[in-house]
Amino acid sequence: MRYPAGGGMNAAARVRREKVRIQAAAMFAESQTTAQIASELRVSEKSVRQWRRRWTAGGTAALASAGPGGSDCKLSGDQQKQLIEMLDDGPVVHGWDDARWTLARVAELIERRFEITYTLRGVSYLLHRIGYSQQVPTRRAIERDPQAIATWHRRRWPSVRG
């Protein structure tokens, strides 16, 4: 399952889900059957069985939310801010000969500056986390003449359009 917010449940959904597990714990204490609990809480019997095993092993505390999933970012908050500034400066400032950031270039920049290695997929996740999205540059010919284009639009286009 994919989540639009970047993976996993958001904080409100985790709280709701934890409340359901706590309700299930009260029902476990009352010795209700798995089928009864699943029906009343509108969850699967498999979930109820898993929760019951955790409750039996560790009590109600074992059903508490573990927090958001996923690994922590390798870069600190300050390093992320520095990376944003470096990306905004552009790749030419950092030694590349054209004005395009690629995942490989960003990974190399991070390794040079912070001595932290990232995979290309990790760089993609990091860039998404700090607010960047994939962009495809508009391809235009070097020989493009804006004046000639404007003249064509003004003189020729009306007759072509009909």
TrEMBL record:
A GO term, aspect molecular function: DNA binding
Superkingdom field: Bacteria
Domain Winged helix-turn helix: 97-154
InterPro entries documented for this protein: Homeodomain-like_sf, Winged_HTH_dom
Cross-referenced Pfam families: HTH_23 (PF13384), HTH_33 (PF13592)
Keyword tags: DNA-binding
Name under which the protein is recorded: DNA-binding protein
Lineage of the organism: Bacteria, Bacillati, Actinomycetota, Actinomycetes, Micromonosporales
